User: Fold these one by one.
Assistant:
Number 1:
Amino acid sequence: MSTPLLVLCVVFVVGAILRFPVSLLLFSSGLAYLWSSKQDIGLIVDQTLNSTFGLNVLLAVPMFILAGNVMNAATISERIWAAADSLVGRFRAGLAHVTVLMNVVISSMSGSAVSDAAGAGMVAIRMMQKVGNYPPGFAVALAAAASCLGPIIPPSIPMVIYALISGASIGALFLAGIVPGLVMAVSLMILIAIVARKRGLPRGAVVTLREIPAVFGRAFIPMTLPAVLLGGIWGGIFTPTESAAVAAFWAILLGVIVYRNLGMKALIAVFSLSARQSAVVMMLIVSSFVVNYAITSEGVAAGLARYIDGLELSAIGFMLVVNVLFLVLGTVLDGAVMLLVFVPVLIPAAKALGIDLVHFGVVVILNFMIAMITPPYGLILFVLSALTGVSMREINREIWQFCIPLTVVLFMLILIPDLTLWLPKMFGYGK
């Protein structure tokens, strides 16, 4: 290992121990490498910024963030909750099932796990605690696990970023996430049914058949957004990047004109929040490119590819090893770090083994979502703990049971690639 690369690793480890923000952690590590290797920091950073922000695909990130924040502010989550509650709320642990079902719908609009957790997740937690009297730790843990559907069911911000670093088709990635997302939802609902019997979780209120049309009527317009987005992408009306702008415009239209619950003051607050969140994500992406420059310059990616090739692993063997490693690293590292730093290093090896990059992307993104709800450093757990006041100890005691079905789905995807690739192939991907 060269001295500059050693400096990068030391700065990274020290920053991680001190709990630096992820973007600052990556950027400081990259700058430390450039400084210690006596390279022109200004020139390299300038080239990195210019090459990164010249990519149109990045426009999707702030647009999806804006769409998610507008939907949270415009009470769209509450309307979708009521529609889901009218269908499954009457069953044992009905409110828990409603939480999962609501996230299936919300996930097809926002594309961000943290946004779903802070928006739809808070609605679900409030209802489970106040109406169903669920244990606080259980309610928060379930909302956290259900929010993992956000980046898997399209549209998805992590998929956009993965497409940027891998060159995989965004449209194919969006298609590939639908079946795995639905399988994840079913797995969580099976676990809820098992836990409900053991712990005697209550049944929800029964919504009569006469009331259901009115409830769905209030949620009908928001529920058209997934059809507009996905239909537009696959019908060739607009690109996946343009679909993000369509989602943001649609959400603003609903909040300002249709429901009239977003005044100018609220709208300015939403735009301000979205700008801050977008800046954090963009800083994260740029910082990762500086680190990736260092890794490429040192030949780490090529060396790792040669090492893996020497192990003579099969494609499935490679996928199993990589994902077990990511599951372990996910307990101490942020999912964004693994996506932006480790995945680019592994892509050459995946290509060499003939692994479809769309399949690989969906699998690793699910892995990173599990990392975001895995103690002790799961980001979504910290967000919900701060928002609800429920202690991390209570949440950690409950979250492990929800990690199990998601991990089972992860290995199902590894062993059965057609779960991810069947739908893209139906639409002509790979032909």
Number 2:
Amino acid sequence: MKSNQSIHTSTNPWKWIPTLYIAEGLPYFAVNTLTVLMYNNLGLSKSEMAFYTGWLYLPWVIKPFWSPFVDIMRTKRWWTIAMQLLICVCMAGVALSLPTSLFLGASLGMFWIMAFSSATHDISADGLYILALDEKKQASFVGVRSTFYRIASVLGQGGIVILAGTLEERILNIPLAWSITFGILSIFFFLLFLYHCYSLPYPKDDMPSKDYGIVEIANGFIHSFVTFFKKKYVWTAVVFMLLYRLPEALCIKLVQPFLKDSIAEGGLALSTAHIGIINGTIGVISLLAGGILGGVLISKGGLKRWLMPMAMALTLPCLVYCYLSYVQPPSFVLISVLIGFEQFGYGFGFTSFMLYMMYFSKGENATSHYSFCTAFMALGMMIPGMFAGWLFDNLPEISILSEMNLKSYEIFFWFVILTSVITFYVTFLVYRSLPKAGIRDAD
């Protein structure tokens, strides 16, 4: 056994890091992106779709509460492989449930387990990455892991959606089309699981903690929690993390239905395959470009200088959807270019948000504090997203709006723009709390 571990400890990182981060990204996008379009195509109302899929975000919100226990129960390698097998089973469960009359409850149950498994996989896979590589190799491969996570984004938001859309058009049976899609995804994930059973390394430090039990871990967590809320400007930071992305949190549940719905319903009448092309190629490329530019500018000018411009870049491009809902252009190229512009703005604006969370987490228990920040970020996406469908259904019923002869999507996207005032306000609060010199990085 020891010789076997020795062999796998020195495994070439190129043999497992690319596939590991594809395995980390795919279930996340399946749970949080594919479900929105799938349930919309299966005929759920906007309120039902947004509420049910919004709940699926919960595991990423509460992930910090159980992440310490991954350290004391089994190894990171064991957790990683076990979660991949469980995710594979859940994907197969979704595939089997969709053609049945009980598809909604059964598939949501599978997605719920998949979400918890995926969040746990995030913890163990990142931990394995740290344990298996020294600091020099960690730095060398950080771009590789990010790149292949983005490739998972292309597959999850693009390739899989295109496959489902092609099947919808050819077999003219939407439940069966998505059932086949998730069946193929399950087989692909099973192959990743088998490959990782062999290829993942056995780091010598990857072992359950013997020095700390559940009580010690719980006490450590409580200490981290208390020290987090003793930080200066903590409530400014919490409000910022909850509300900075409010316009995006509202939009994210309705954009894909907007692209898919018919012209008569106020949508753009794109096919599922066309939505996959926009999301998986143009959208991802624009998002990455915006993020890269944001990082370059902050490294030169500092966070404080770029905080408000990036808040504007995150919110104001939502005007793209106001325009599209009003004009409903037939040109796929024009729609793609405009959504690419909106995604570029989002990538650019999100850079300052991530850097601020790193900055706020500095000091004692930085890792735990950063996990709390990401939990608040996830909660800020989850709650507005859950009620976005309800707003879409009920905003047109307001008397003053019902007299304006606007389509439902027009009303909704203008409401989203209105919420950008909240983003600007919380950004201003953070701006005042930052050092006068600003910060150029998280150090």
Number 3:
Amino acid sequence: MEHEKIERINELTRISRERELTAEEQVERAALRKEYLDGFRENMRQVLEGIKLQRPDGTIEPLQKKQDKH
């Protein structure tokens, strides 16, 4: 995410501490936050996919997704 967008999120947060945000500002902040979180999650997914585990027998394998217990 671009630095300017992060700065805008921070600016809107500062404004919200001083006064109520307008409906347009609330929508803008929500959209920027969603974009930020989506980017963060994608980056974290890529980091986790790059992790390799070395077993005691010396074999190396990729990190596996946790299985649901349902």
